[in-house]
Structure formats: structure tokens, C-alpha cells
Amino acid sequence: MTAGTLDATPRALAPAHRRRRRREQLEEALLPPLVAIAVALVLGDLLILAFGQAPAAVYRQLIEGTWGNPYGLGQVLYKASTLACTGFAFALASRAGLFNIGAESQLAAGGFAAAAVGLLLPGGMPALLAVPLLVLAAMAGGGLVGAVPGVLRARFGASEVIVTIMLNFVVLALLNWIVSAHLHVPETLHTPTIAAGTVPRLGDVFPMFRGSAANFTLLATVAAAIALWWYLFRTRRGFELRAVGLQPEAAEAGGVSVAGVTWRAFVLAGALAGLGGINYVLGYKHYFEEGFATGSGFIGIAVALVGRNHPVGILLAALFFATISQGGLAVNALVPKPMAEILQAVIILTVAMATPGVQRALRNARQRASA
Amino acid sequence: MAGIHKSFGAVQANRGAALEVAAGEIHALVGENGAGKSTLMRILAGLFPPDAGTLSVDGRDVTGWSVPHAIAAGVGMVHQHFMLVPTLTVAENVVLGMEPRRGPTLDRGAAERRVRELGRQAGLEVAPDTPVAELSVGEAQRVEILKTLYRGARILVLDEPTAVLSPLEVEELWGVLRGLRDAGGTVVLITHKLDEVVAISDAITVMRAGETVERIRTRDTTPAAIARAMVGREVALATEGVAVGAGLDLASVERDEVGDGGGRGHGAPREGAAEWGSPPSGSMSSAASVSITIPPPPVASPPALRVRDLVVRDARGHRHVAGVSFDLAPGEIFGIAGVEGNGQTQLVEALAGLAPIAAGEIRLDGHDLAARSVRDRADLGLSHIPEDRHRRGLVLDFSVADNLILGRQHRFARRGLLDRARVDANAAEQIAAFDIRPADGLLPARALSGGNQQKVVVAREMGGAYSVLLAAQPTRGVDVGAIEFIHDRLRAARDAGKAVLLVSADLTELLALSDRVAVMFRGRFVTVLPRSQASASVLGPYMTGADGEAVA
Amino acid sequence: MIVLAFLAQTLRIATPYFFAAAGGVLSERVGVVALTLEGFMLTGAFCAAVGSYESGDPWIGVLAGVAGGLLAAALFALATIRFRADQVVSGIAVNLLAVGATRFFLQLLYDSSSNSPRVPGFDGAQTAGVGLVTTLGNPLIWLGVLALPVLGWVLFRTPFGLRARAVGEHPDAAGSVGVPVTRIRWTGVLLSGALAALGGVYLALDQHQFTDNMTAGRGYIALAAVIFGRWDPKRVLLAGFLFAAAETMQIQLQSMQVIPSQFVEMIPYVLTIVALAGLVGRAVPPAALGRAE
């Protein structure tokens, strides 16, 4: 993975060569997604035409159904919030040189932990106390699931790619069993509603958003972005984590414990994914239901990839992917919504394909220009 | 080959190099590191085309051919780093790409028969059904040669073939090469070891800085003349008849005249049962009887670093450091010489806390380091310039400022937060003090030249408070200006009372800086001499394994 | 009789694993991570349903399924080998694409978001029997049982196999003696797509329809079998059989409620994690796995 662009460094009065570098980094970051969007648009046109629709009309519908009205925007914000959290989870591990394919089960575990603890709380508990408690529960739940690949990798060198993939199935099956055997409301597949610790929806305060799932756990996502940025670029641990991700042997010589960074990164990544679980459980449905996390883990990878593992990039990329996802629903009357899934996959694939090539091409071009 | 030019980016590896090899001779291609020998040979083997110049084999112009062409024409190359698949057997490696078939299947029997047959003919016997991972380095090299012979090679190119071999294995290799020559084959041998040149070759081509400077018959020249041609100036320490040039590897030429070294060990170990990438370890104990009188450190003060009976093994149990003891005093530079791969790397890594120690004791100002982490050691006053700055020394994508605190990051943090202002102040200070260019702490280390990158490492390790410095290959691959700068710094550190352990493959550097010099061979110190008694001619024989017979 | 019925059902469950795992072994042996088995299977299943439905001949379905798998594999190979895209990210993208594309075309062709029309399969009798006779009458089951042994023979007995193993372990060494590394990787990935697709073909023809996301993680179980079987076709065959037997057992015992089904589902994954941690013999992958040349 390419990491390490747009890093935070003080830049009071940047000299020319530094400004140039920053511009070059930006080019490298933006070009692959732009190429990908172009490819996706062309392909999207073809798919729309295959269904006998006019691309322009479909795209107009897509924009109107998302950013064009408060409900659509609310849905985009809601989805983006979850995707950003799984994006953070992938990005944090990625900065440490690790693949976290397990965000989906970490997210689910976070949501489950929040619901399970929420069910234990007395009904009259003030939100100011209950919400932070459930947020911590969600992060602990996700962190616990994240700890497994972290420790197995740090202790035994087990491939975290395979462990996280396999663990997704194990954790989801486990949660499924707990809910279906012990916690579900009869005739449903979800837990009872939590008594305390719910978070109001945006629509409760701003009536125009009424009906959409957007809720104030959105703020937690933004806070997580800031915290992640702070951790990566301002703390000693973040410095050490990035050093391990870029050059583990130099980090080791610099007194950094690679094993320590590995498990810590996975626990924190899991906690960030777990945090995403409150969006559904505290802010939307107020119960845990198996399946709410489906797909968010994989799209989170795309979000981190397009967002270049940077918290700000991830927020923007999360909005982008949420727009496609919600847009798919908005145009469902004209074109089946799986079109959105196709476009998301194509964008991931194109970004992955374009990144090494774009880097090489840009660097060659600059070398020629400076030679 | 004539007028060969080849550049890689800004580096001109070959500038009008020429090579002419007669059929049926053993031809040595010599030159210092970086003289362009390997590049020239890779062009011959078809790995890449030359930018200019012509290449002909058997009178046919074959300029710019590819590997399959070269193989088909009978040119076989044995790379310095073996190109063998460890999980496959000897026979499988040999026939890979040109497999004998029986119907649609691989004819394993035929492959193994052929390997045995070739091995018998050329004196290269290896069990064909052994997985290559289980072979010693010498056996692996035999497989490499068998691979070329299996493909019908008549021109065999060997790139630094002896770097990894024990003396006995070197002798066996010479036997094989002579056999090939006597059977009508042609051998080109790349080396920078003059004793090998004299021992084996019929003719010599000398390269320097990408150009061919001399072509001569071996019997018409002397080692001193070859050395002069390699280095390009008069370098012979005339009294001892030994040539030593900057960067010139150990030159134990005319070793008969080198008799007065004192304390020389006896009977170099003979068995060469080495595993992959490790020095021969099976026979370490046979050198145990070497008696060395270690001269006391020049300054009569308690040692800053005290090492006793240190043993270092790798994860597979191979012993790289086999019982090393020494004291390092404040105010001295203690140099460690030796052919690379004799445990110097592992010694430094163990001292730095990067490799676990199997036995022995390390004390820094009296503190036992055995259980201390890298960070604890740094806090106790240990600094470390790693031998490979790209791998261990720097995070290339970090800024210079960040690299300047790597390893000290906890001292630049308050309650877990990095103090950016102090990081930047530190960068400004070190960049000025060590003249790092360009003087911009926010540039990524990757953007700096090799010399400036090394200065970043040196500034970090020597710019703050410390008492003991481990300097491993501190000037490798840097420009002359930076070399002088770093040398001055090392001397200044010594004069300021720091204890410096200097490991270098460059004998000239060691002799120029050290107060005492030890020679490391197969994980042990085979001699330790005060500077006044050390010279290239004295140290040379120790570096090849004690006394003269070892490389006879 | 119970034993035979058990064996028959296990074989039916194991067949997709055998095919996909064979593809996985081959792909990983040439150095390309086999995260895409799920996507290849799903594509194969969909194309088989379309081919079989449109032609009325299940063999056309088989061909269409294999073609679909080849196409998906070509896309993956193009990304990872030609463009050197990250193998893990590209693999996930191909899987997502397979889910989205099959859904899309299901709607486009059959106007359904859940399943295709009923398609002809290999069991002539229209009963969805579990008996030994119907099982043995399905040629795909025979092919599935043979897939891994044949792959083992190819890998360890033919020149191509030798080259493939060399490419996956040490591509530079293979390249230095003129082995066409890129071509071997392409071949390995394409064949892996075809093999995994056959697993999907079997599912679609066995159930006489394509249903949305019908592979339901079987590609990952096959990957688990590859790792648990340590990339050795013989062991992988046993692993696939073991995983299938556990499922059969669970189905047979379902009424008795001995163990919750979720725990049986976990078996392949837990075993694989345990194997990776080195607690039961170390699983060491091909040395060049995942590296783009």
C-alpha cells in the first residue's frame, strides 16, 4: 500500500520546492480516483443503455436522489458515517503495513457490544452517562475482535489477511448464534430495543432531515477522524506506527517494538470499526440486527484506498461511496440498484490498477522534466 | 566486447569498456567495487543490452541479445546471489526451463541421471534428489555451475564466486574451473581479490571506473602492478610488497613476505559445511586453540563497553559470533576488520540489541545489556550507525526532521505527544552542525543524496549525548566529501572521550582511524593488534583464515 | 446404507470445494493470492445457469460457466499481473464486481432480483434426490473428485508444474533460466478461474437455478481448505472432504439439536486460523505469494 502522503508537517512559509512536492503528492493522490471515475462513468453509461435508459436522466436522478434533497443527503451522511469508520479501520492498520480485511466483523461486534450493554442499562439512565458508556462498549467490542489477528500476527507471524477474512465468518456466525439462541425478539432476527443511550436523529432537530437515518453519532465519526489524525501525526505512538509501516527494520533499530505496534494497530483499528456500530444501534434502530454490517467492511477498504489512508481523504471518499450506494437506490426505478455495486467495484479495481502506473508515469515525467 | 557503454539513470556503469577472451582460457576480470565488471558481464549474459558498443561471440555479432539467445550460444552465468529455488531438488533446479520429457511428463529419472553424469564429468558431485534448501553454500554453487553446463555452456561467467566459499571449497572450485578449461571451455571470473587472480587465471582484464584500463597475461604481471592498475595510482606499501588501495579488498598478495605478524593462529578450519547465507559454522571450535594476546586499551580507564564470550546464533541455530571478548575504552576507536560475512554484522546487531545473544555478556558502563531493549540501550548512552542506511538507518519516506529523532522519539514527546517545535529545532540544529544539504528538514530522506542521507544518520547518532558508538560501514556508498566529513567526526568523537567501535570492509579506513584493530574470521577475533603493529599486509592473512596454507 | 448416503451427500457438498480449492492451489502456487475464488465461482454459476437455460443443454452451461470464470480471471490477472495492482485489494474488488454484475444481469435477463428460471442439470430424474445413484450420475462430481489429484500430477509430474512451482517460489530464478514468468502466472490465474468456476457451475446445475449470491462464502471455505491443506493437493483434498463431512454431519443431526449449526459453520475457518498460527503444524505459503513480480 502506498502510504505517507499529505502528512501533517508544519508549513509556515513553504519554499518553492516544498510547494512543488505538495503539488506532486496531490497529483499522485487525485489522478487514480479521477481515472477510476472516468472509467466508471463510461461503464455506467453502457449499463444504463443496456437497460434502455438515457444516461443523462439516470445521473440527474442520482444526484437529485442524494445531494438534491434533505432526505437523500441524510441517507448519504448516515451511510458515509459507517463507511468512514471501516475506512479508518483499514487505514490505521495499513499505515502500520498491515491488511485489515476484518472491519466487517469488527463493526458487527461493535454494534453488538453496544446493544448488549445497552440492554443491561436501566431505562432512566441519563444519556450523558449512557451514550459514552455504549460508545466505549462498541469500541471495546471491535477492539477485541481486532486483537485476534493482531496478536496472532505479532506472536506467530500468521498472515493477517487470511486471519481477518476467516475471522469475519467466525465472528458473524458467533453473533448470529448468540442473537438467535438467546437474545432475539420472537419472530424477528434482532435484539430487543435498548432502554437507554439512544442518540437523536438529525431529523429530530432539523425537521427537513425527517425520515432519514442520519443521526448525531455522525459527530463521533468526525471526532474519530480528528483523533486518528492526531494519533498518526502528533503522537509518539503514531510516529512509531508509521515508521513500522514504512520501514519495519529501521523502526526496530530506532527502538520500536514491531510486535507491539502490530497488535496495538489492530486493536485500535478494530475499535474504530466498532465505533461505526453505534451509528446503527444508538442512532438508527436502537437494536442489534445481524446483517447491518454486511458489505461495509469491503467498501471501507475502497474508502481508505481512495482516501489515501488519510483521515480527511477517508471522510471525503466515504461521502463519495455513500453517494453511489444511496444513488443506486434513488435510480432503482430506472436501472436496477446493483449497478451501484458494479460501479463501486470498478472504481476500486481501477484505482488499484492505476496507482502503481500513475506513480511511475508521474515520476518518470518529472525526471525527464528535471533532466 | 568493445566500446561498451551502459548507464543506469545518472550512473555510468560502463564507459567504453572492452573485453576480449580467448577460447579455452581462464580470464580474470578485476577491478574495485563499482568498476563496472558485473554490468559488463550481465550485458554478455543478455540480461540487458548495452547503450553503445558491440558484442561478439565466436566471431558472430550478437550485440543486444537476450538471455535465451545467450544460453543457446553457450554462455552461462553464475550470479553472485544464487538463482536457485530452495524448495526444488537439485535435479529440478538444473533442468528447470529445459526439462527432459517422457510423453507429457517430466522425466525425473533422466534429469537425475544427467545431473549425476555432468557432475562426474566436471567434478561437481551433488545428490540430485536433495532439496536445494538443504545444501551448503559450496554445493549450491556447484548446482549453479551444473545448471550452465546442462544448458551446454562453453563460456562460463562467474561473478565473485569465492565470496561465500571456504578456502577448501575455493580450491575445489579452482579444480573444477581448470578441468573445464582443459576440456576446451572458457571461463570468465569476476573478482577483486588479487590472490585469486594470480592463483587461477591465464589472462587478466583490469577495469576502473567503467573503463578497461589494462589487458595482460597473468604470467607477465605482478600483483602490485594489477593493484596499481585497479586503483589508478601508486598504492603499494613498497616495503612489504603489498598493494592496498582505497576500497580495495583484502589483498594478501605475496604472502610469503608476510611472516612477522605475531600471534598467528594455526591450521585454518577446513570443512566448509555452511548453510545459506551464513558463514561456515561447523568448524568454529577447531579454531578455539588460537591464542591471542589482546593488547590493553591505550587509555587506562574502566571500559565503556565490555564484551565477554559473546555468542550469537540466528533463528536457525547457526552460530555467527562464536565467542568474542573485548573491552572498549573511552577515547579509543577500536576497528574490526574482516571479509564480510564473518560475523561482523551479527556482532554489531547483538550489541545494538537487534539480535538476541545466545551466550556471553555485554556491559555498557557496568550495566548488563543482555535483557535491555534497543531503547534502553540508547538511553544508557549507546549510539548505532547501522551498516545499511536504506534498510535500518532511515525511514526513507519520513522527513529529515523525523529521521533525526528516530530512536529518540520518546525524548521528543511529552505525555505521548511529539513536541513538534523541539523536533524542528533539533532538525535545524543538526542540519547546520552536520552540513546536511539541502538544508530543509521537511524534505523526505529519500530525496537526499547518499552522502547526505548518511549524514542524517550520523547526525542523529553523534549529535546528541552518548558514550559508546557502534559505527558499521559508516562511509559505505557515500561521496568523498562525506567520507572525509564522517572520518573527521569519528576522530573528534574519540578525542572527546567517546568509545567507538568501527566495523568496516575498507582496510584503509580502518587503518586510518583505529587505535586498535581486530580481525574477525568465522565469528571470532583471530588477532587484535595495536595500530602501530597493524598494516594491510599483517592483517590480510588473518582475514583469509590465519596462515598461508589456507589459501595456498 | 446410512454410510453410503452420508458419503453421497458429503461428495455433493464437497464438489464445489474441490474445484475451487484446486483453482486456489494453482493460483497461489504461481504466486497470486486466491482471494477471488468466491467471485470466480459466482460468475461460473451465473454463466452456467444462463448457458444451460438458453440452450437447454447442461453441457453448454458448463462451457458458458468456464468461459465466465476465464473472463473474471482475465480481469484479475490483468489488474495484478499486467498493472501490478495490489492482489488483495483487486481480489476483493473482483468479488464485489461478481456479486454486483450477476445481480445486475439477473435483473436484465430474467427480471428478477432473486433467482433465474429453472435450468436443466445433469440428474435426468427431476427428483432432487440425495441418493448415491443421482450423485454418481452427475459427471461434475466425478470431475470434482479428480480435479485435485490431476492438479497434483500436473504440479509435480510435468514440466509446466515444475515451472509453476518455481515461479511461485522464486520468480527471479525462474526468469534467469528463461522460464516465462508472466505467461506462467497468467496461465495459472486463468486456469484457476476456470476451475473455481466449475465449482459454481456445479452449484447452479445441481440446484437447477442461479440464486443471488448463491456461493455464500464457499469460495472462502475453499481458500481455507487450500491453507489448511498447506498448498498440497492431497492434503487439500482431505481438507475439503473434512469440511464437507462436517457440514453433512450438521445437516443430518440438525433435528437432534446437538450442536448449534453456527458452530459447525465455523469449523473450516477456525481450523485455518489455528493452522496459520502454527499451533497444528506450520502453514508456509509459497515464498513469492502476493508479490507483484
Supply the key terms.
heterotrimer; B: six-stranded mixed β-sheet; 17 helices; disordered C terminus; C: 293 residues; mainly alpha; 12 helices; 72% helix; globular
pLDDT under 50 segments of chain B (min length 5)? 234-291, 546-552
- Biggest interface, chains and residue tallies: A-C, 48 and 46 residues
Number of helices of chain B: 17
Helix content of chain A: over 70%
Main β-sheet of chain B, in a few words? Answer: 6 strands, mixed
Q: Give the number of DSSP strands of chain B.
A: 27
Radius of gyration of chain A: 21 Å
Fraction in beta strands of chain A:
under 5%
**SSE order of chain A, one letter for each helix or strand:** HHHHHHHHHHHHHHH
Radius of gyration over C-alpha positions of chain B, nearest whole angstrom: 25 Å
| Biggest β-sheet: strands ordered side by side in the sheet of chain B | 7-10-11-3-12-13
User: What would you call the structural class of chain B?
Assistant: alpha/beta
Oligomer description: heterotrimer
What is the arithmetic mean of pLDDT of chain A? 90
**β content of chain B, as a range?**
15-25%
What this model shows, in words?
The complex is a heterotrimer of chains A (371), B (552) and C (293). Chain A is mainly α and 371 residues long. Chain A has helices at 16-50, 55-66, 70-95, 103-120, 127-156, 160-183, 202-205, 218-234, 236-246, 248-253, 258-275, 277-281, 296-306, 311-330, 338-370. Chain A has 15 helices and no strands. The longest helix of chain B is centred in the first third of the chain and has 16 residues, at 167-182. Chain B is globular. Chain B is 30% helix and 23% strand. By secondary structure, chain C is mainly α. Chain C has helices spanning 2-29, 37-55, 58-82, 87-110, 132-136, 139-157, 159-169, 171-176, 181-207, 218-228, 233-253, 261-276. The termini of chain C are far apart. Chains in contact: A-B, A-C, B-C. At the A-C interface, helix 5, helix 6, helix 13 and helix 15 of A face helix 3, helix 4, helix 10 and helix 12 of C.
